[in-house]
Design brief:
By secondary structure, the chain is mainly α. It has two domains: 11-191, no CATH class; 198-295, no CATH class. 46% of the residues lie in helices and 7% in strands. It has helices at residues 11-25, 30-42, 47-64, 106-113, 179-191, 198-223, 227-234, 246-262, 267-275, 281-289; strands at 81-84, 101-104, 118-120, 128-130, 160-162, 171-173. The strands form three sheets. It has a two-stranded antiparallel ribbon. It has a two-stranded antiparallel ribbon with strand order 3-4. Strands 5-6 form a two-stranded antiparallel sheet. It binds zinc ion. Residues 71, 73-74, 77, 104-105, 107-108 line the site of zinc ion.
């Protein structure tokens, strides 16, 4: 998980969300607010205003995705669902709040997270309280000090650490963090099944190899002096246009490799390769030859 770059919605869509939220907030009890949030959510895309607003919300969330339309939790599957970071059942006051939305895959949203959530109680403590989840029961949480790492507003890499060195490709808590932050890391890993889901773990391992391969090609392209060098890097003579000036072709190929890196799944793996380059000799060596890649 990496932090998303938040974007603004149009004022018309903000007004639509505010109006819908007011209908929830106007209900007299917590239970009726939760039920109202749920029914309004089910019909959110209906009517002229709802269709337009939620069309824009989905489009903006897609632009904010950490990769090309991939889930912001697992970074593996297609992002299909508008997900409430704070579940609407426990936090109806956040059901129609823009800052509470991210795009996730159906598996993360439905099979793993669902409406599970925990808060720190007392507020700002390290004591974790799971919210009750029995069907048909509604109880107001003690506070909104969420345990789950919220990639809209927090940098997940302040809490998480990916084991690349020992090649388990499991997430763990970042060394040296506080007990509270450690609980945030562990809760997030467990709730989303980030280590328990084999395709995710294997996907991170494959991604690490991909990123290193691309970085190596980038460095070779940077040092290339002939068209034959460029052809060897792309492994396809048709990819290199020898009618163009050499420097232009070299720059184009370097740009293409950079774009490959920017659009691949599991962008956290790329961030972690850079962060841990001091402990990863090959990665460190390549990045020393292409320090500009640290900004990607
Ligand atoms: Zn997912």
């Amino acid at each position: 998980m990496i932090r998303l770059n938040s974007k603004d919605l149009s004022s018309a869509t903000v007004v639509h969300l505010d109006k819908t939220q007011l209908k929830v907030d106007g209900e007299p009890t917590f239970e009726s607010r939760a039920k109202k949030a749920s029914s309004l959510w089910d019909s959110k895309g209906s009517g002229q205003g709802g269709k337009k607003a939620f069309g824009e919300i989905r489009k903006t969330l897609l632009q904010m995705c950490v990769g090309v339309e991939i889930c912001n939790y697992c970074e593996h599957n297609e992002a299909t669902d508008i997900e409430h970071v704070y579940p609407k059942k426990s936090f109806p006051e956040k059901a129609f709040r823009w800052e509470n939305y991210i795009l996730s895959c159906g598996k993360c949203n439905t099979d793993y997270k669902s409406d599970k959530f925990a808060v720190f109680n007392p507020l700002h403590s390290a004591d974790l309280e799971e919210l009750p989840r029995q069907r048909g029961t509604y109880s107001q949480p003690a506070n909104a000090d969420g345990v789950l790492i919220n990639p809209r507003w927090e940098n997940p890499l302040d809490y998480l650490w990916l084991d690349i060195q020992n090649k388990s490709f499991h997430f763990t808590d970042k060394p040296g963090i506080s007990l509270r932050d450690c609980r945030k890391a562990k809760y997030t890993i467990e709730l989303l099944g980030l280590n328990a889901r084999t395709p995710l773990v294997e996907g991170r391992e494959v991604a690490a190899k991909y990123y290193l391969d691309r970085l190596e090609r980038y460095v070779r392209a940077k040092h290339a002096t002939t068209f034959a060098d460029l052809e060897a890097i792309t492994q396809d003579p048709d990819m290199v246009d020898e009618t163009q000036p050499f420097e232009a072709e070299q720059a184009r190929i370097m740009d293409a490799i950079r774009s490959d890196i920017a659009h691949h799944q599991h962008p956290t793996v790329w961030q972690e390769l850079k962060r841990q380059r001091g402990q990863l000799p090959k990665t460190g060596r390549l990045l020393a030859q292409a320090p500009e890649a640290l900004e990607w």
